[in-house]
Inverse folding.
């Protein structure tokens, strides 16, 4: 046995086997929780893995662990909406009143993620509160028309009724790219497909789930990365790996697994996501390395 005074109650053979499973997955950007969840044969706790790494008995070091991405509440930008009239009936207070009246509504949070200065392409993200599924679409620019094209393509794939069922209420910020709610709410045949609501100014904390979930994107594309060399396939690949990651808050399920239970099946299929095998999940820049 490895000496008890070191706090490691394992035989050298068992420790070697543990290291052969844990260390490569840590280097792929996986957390100890995710590894333990997908490898019950290890028969140890998440805390134990952290202790072993800190003790230096595994090949990986503390510096190799996934870093928590620090994010700050964003300041008001000059690109925010000027036409304040569009907020009538669409404020955060209106949103809360609606949810109070219809508490079982499937709420989707919407946002954009930008690359480095000078990078033209941006990500449009849509986050389902019910199952923590996050869709990622690569836009050619941060414009209202680019956002609308994503909505229209989704409606064409899942039908107007399918869109209504899947995206009944969308909560977003006051970025200029979301400044034409009538165009987003009205479908291809001018049938209402969703309802858009806006957070208060400088209040991104009102949609905290999507803001927090963006840290997975930053594991792969740290701040300062350009998105201009990325493709739509890259965005789908990134979303597939993120949504295949088990969450403690979902009792060990992945967002894809829960989405298949809670969302319309045709819609989930239309999203084009692929469930990634636990050992193949990569949450580092290597995922999209050209």
């Amino acid at each position: 046995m490895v000496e008890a005074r070191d706090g490691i109650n394992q035989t050298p053979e068992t420790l070697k086997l543990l290291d052969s499973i844990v260390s490569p997955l840590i280097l792929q950007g996986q957390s100890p929780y995710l590894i333990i969840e997908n490898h019950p044969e290890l028969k140890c706790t998440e805390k134990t893995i952290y202790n072993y790494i800190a003790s230096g008995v595994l090949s990986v070091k503390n510096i190799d662990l996934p870093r928590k991405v620090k994010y700050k509440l964003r300041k008001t930008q000059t690109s925010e909406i000027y036409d304040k009239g569009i907020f009538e009936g669409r404020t955060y207070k209106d949103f809360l009143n609606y949810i109070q009246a219809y508490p079982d509504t499937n709420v989707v949070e919407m946002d954009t993620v930008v690359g480095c200065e000078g990078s033209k392409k941006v990500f449009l993200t849509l986050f389902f509160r019910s199952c923590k599924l996050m869709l990622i679409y690569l836009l050619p620019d941060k414009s209202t028309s680019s956002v609308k094209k994503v909505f229209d393509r989704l409606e064409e794939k899942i039908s107007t009724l399918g869109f209504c069922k899947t995206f009944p209420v969308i909560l977003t910020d006051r970025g200029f790219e979301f400044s034409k709610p009538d165009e987003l709410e009205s479908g291809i045949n001018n049938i209402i497909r969703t309802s858009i609501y806006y957070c208060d100014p400088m209040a991104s904390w009102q949609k905290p789930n999507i803001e927090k979930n963006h840290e997975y994107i930053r594991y792969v594309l740290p701040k300062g990365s350009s998105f201009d060399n990325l493709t739509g396939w890259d965005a789908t690949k990134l979303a597939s790996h993120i949504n295949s990651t088990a969450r403690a808050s979902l009792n060990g399920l992945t967002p894809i697994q829960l989405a298949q239970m809670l969302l319309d099946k045709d819609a989930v299929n239309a999203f084009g996501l692929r469930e990634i095998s636990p050992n193949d999940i990569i949450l580092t820049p290597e995922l999209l390395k050209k």
User: Anything to note?
Assistant: The longest helix spans residues 144-166. Residues 4-64 form one domain. Confidence is low (pLDDT under 50) at residues 1-6, 73-78. The beta strands are 107-114, 122-128, 134-139, 169-172, 195-198.
